[in-house]
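pinging the channel bc i need a second pair of eyes. not urgent but kinda urgent?? the chain im working w is below, pasted from the shared doc
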Amino acid sequence: MIRESIKRILKENTDLKTNLKKMMDQVGIYFAVQSVGGFDNFDKILDLNLSDPDSNLLMVKNFIKFSNRNPRIKKMLDEDNIKIVDVEDKISNSGNYQINILFDTDDPAANIESWVISFYKHELENFFPIKFRKVYEPNFSIKKGEIVLNATKLKYDNLGNTLNEEDNKDFAVEKLKKMIDNIGIFKTAKSVGGIENLKKYFANDTDILKIINSLKGTMNLIYHSRKEFIEFPVRFEIVSIQKNTWNSNSWPQVNLIYDDSNFDEDEKELFDQFVYYTISDLNIGNVDIKPEAQDMYKDVHYIAIDFVNGKNYKSLDHDVEYYQIDDDMKNLHRKYMENNKLNESRRLTENEEDPTQKILNFLLRRYKVEERNLGDEQHPIIFRTVFFDVNGETYVISVFQNKREQIRVITDMLIIHNVIEPIDPYERQLDPYTQKVIRAIKTFLNQVFK
């Protein structure tokens, strides 16, 4: 492939000087030098001025940029799965040009950056009659005209922005602001893994936080009984914007959020059917969309409910004929309100420093209690067991365990499923974060074992 490129370039123009410059731009200086029999010939043909730092900088950057085409260098880089991403330059503290080799690798070695610097210093000095210095060498040892070498292993955020420089976060925030202006808040959030991730970028920007927080609201799902309306309050989050074919109108697309964890399987099936047909018939009321969110749409009198607890609403149970009895719905409403009132009473402000709400939400949505009487009617011995079903895995605590053991089981579960940061609940001196975690777990235990 490279040989064909060189042959094509040589056929295009008989002027060797022009051909060498084209070859550098298209396949790299290494092959351009090889094609004329070495760097000395290359120097004579192009009449290089090796005392010109600008000219030297361009040649060195070209060498590094195309170095993965050099079979020997490529072999060395491939062994450590190193990919050269970019080559930057700036003026170093010594007043010389400094080159920073940006690379990507999954090699966990702590010294990988110094290895890249040393490797390229060796290769460059073997190729060019130019002197190079490593960035961590003292400034007094660097002479005028020498090129300083640095290397940076890249880390990325979800946008692909590098996070190695101190100002990269600010750069990412500015880029996200432009994206919000150009493509909207929902596509921007998707690019960083969701609204909650986007929120972290703008922790100190009250205007954008106000918009993000406005994407949550409430509404009622309405069952029409023979004598009255039965209303099920639900929360929702706006997840996108929908438009008509001509883009002359737009409305919010939402995801309904509710807790049905205290329903048995028959009740869940009934509630699924109710929610499905309620959405299909748009039997909803008291839709509360905040003014900041309303400004994003041309029509907020219509709302598209396409998701329920993160799943497409059409996946709800609706294959059987939909018959509902008033008494069944009233009982369902009673249980629903009891459960959702309980969760609402526990709802606190969730943030990174206080994980209380996150823990309570996680536990309250996944636990199930079973009770057995191991005694008799006159002398009951109630054995209470709490089961947690998390992503197909089951965790169990019981009344016969002491609280210390119960806390250990729950703490391990929360750590395994990335709900909390790793902690040691047995430390005698607990840090503030660990104290809040333990306090939240004890709150839950006091509730289920009261």
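so The chain has four domains: 2-153, 168-210, 214-343, 356-448. and The first strand starts at residue 83 and ends at 91. — does that match what u expected or am i reading it wrong
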